[in-house]
């Protein structure tokens, strides 16, 4: 069980570190392997931060898209309401104009 845990947690980086140590055959192989493993951890942490940052940016962009869509819908609704108000006002003005003309015609005759 301990061997399985070791294989699962440090197997890949340790295997790669040992392979690199064998390939380069440094004078101080323990120091080389230690530095290799530290660099591995540093790269994994940077990758994790990059993924976290990417997710955050994606989330912010999605939120921005949603807000833009809401604003566009509100603007469209406002424009529609203004258009309807303008049409009603035009009808009212036409009606009043016709009423005034009719009243004026009746007074003339």
UniProtKB/TrEMBL annotation:
Family: Belongs to the dpy-30 family.
InterPro entries: Dpy-30_motif (IPR007858), Sdc1/DPY30 (IPR037856)
Source taxon at top rank: Eukaryota
One GO cellular component, as annotated: Set1C/COMPASS complex
The protein's name: Uncharacterized protein
Pfam families assigned to the protein according to its UniProt record, in alphabetical order: Dpy-30
Coiled-coil regions listed: 43-99
Organism: Aplanochytrium stocchinoi
Record keywords: Coiled coil
Gene3D superfamilies named in the record: cAMP-dependent protein kinase regulatory subunit, dimerization-anchoring domain
